[in-house]
Structures are given as C-alpha cells and as structure tokens.
Amino acid sequence: MTTPRTHCIRCGECCLRSSPSIQTADLSLVYEGPIERSKLYTLRVGELVRDNLRGELTVSNQELIKIREREEGGGCIFYDDEQKACTIYENRPIQCRALACWDEREFMRVYARPKADRRDLYRDRVLLEIMAEHEKRCNYRELEQKVRRIPAEGEPAVEEVIELLRFDHNLRLLIPRKVNMDPAEMDLLLGRPLTETITMFGLQVIPQPEGGFFLTTLEAPEPKKET
Q: Residue 7 falls within a domain, yes or no?
C-alpha cells in the first residue's frame, strides 16, 4: 500500500503541466516585480484554450492573463529544471501558493476569486484606445465569421481573413516603435498573434519571402506506424 501524499515532494509536475493565470491579488507582483509584463500573455475571449481543471479544450468565455510557458518542453517559464524549484518562489502567484496536488480544495477556492485582465495592468489612455480598437477589429467572433465564409465565397473571403491577420501583425510591429515598449509585451497588450491562433479554425499561415501571408488548411499529423 502507498501512503497518501500530504506534502510537496518537489517533483515539478504541477509547474511542468502549465503556468498559472494572474488574479487581482497578484497585481502587485507585476507592478513591483518580479513578474515583468514581457513574461505574461493574454488569452482573449473566444480563444480556444486548454482547461487544465477538466483536461479538455474549450473556448474561453473570459479574458485571462497567464505567465508564459517555455518554448521547449512546456511548463512555467519560472520553473528551474536543474534545481527543481520555482525561481520566484517567495513571490509566486496566489494560485501557486494554493496548489496542493493531494488536496485541490484550497486551489479551487482561490481560483474562484477575481481574475486580472489587461485593464488592471494598463492605465495609459493611448494604450487602452489601441487595445480597444484591436479588440473591435480582431475579436475571435469577427475572425470566425470571416473564416466560415471561405467555403462559399472562396478567394474574396480568404483575402478578408489575410487582411485581418496583416492588421494584427503590423500593429505588433508598430506599437513598440511608437511608444517605446518591449516587443515581447505585445502578447500581453494584444493577446497572442492571430497568425498563431488561426489554427483553432483548422487553418495555418505560411509566411512568404516577400513578407506576405499564405493561408492554407492545417496539415494533419501523419499517423503513427504500428510496429
């Protein structure tokens, strides 16, 4: 028989599975450090996301601010593999403090508390106006409507989707130059690039040498060969 776990054994599984979202109780960690805005990104309303609580993909019905995950291997960007420890442990988000894999009750209580959104992190009027205009033009309902028109309308509908992708892409290049922001902060200010999230509609973008976009269907993974 195995003894029920009652404490953390520092296996790192929770940190490697995903990264936490930021709640209003965590805002001081962003205002004062150690969590820089460039280490965060926004999941916008209507975006396809993985619900780690239910273990399934779902469409987000609210905006979430999350800590970035590592490009290789996944997991929270603040997790140190060699030390098997959190590099901001003393200043970790409230969800991390509440997480106990042997008893989820405290985590669920904390998770139900108010989540932070971009308007909690940005107070500059110009940035708020840019964010609002981007959301108006590039919201996922608008993108979905344009994508659904492709089978019936063909190339004209494809061009409308590409135009939306181009607007989103160019805005991310323009803002850092105009307001002196870290380009890595764009995933927080505007959410993840549409050229990446377009895959939720079964499409993919192939960048062209001249700087344009080629829109095509998402390639299905090759089936594994049985041995």
A: no
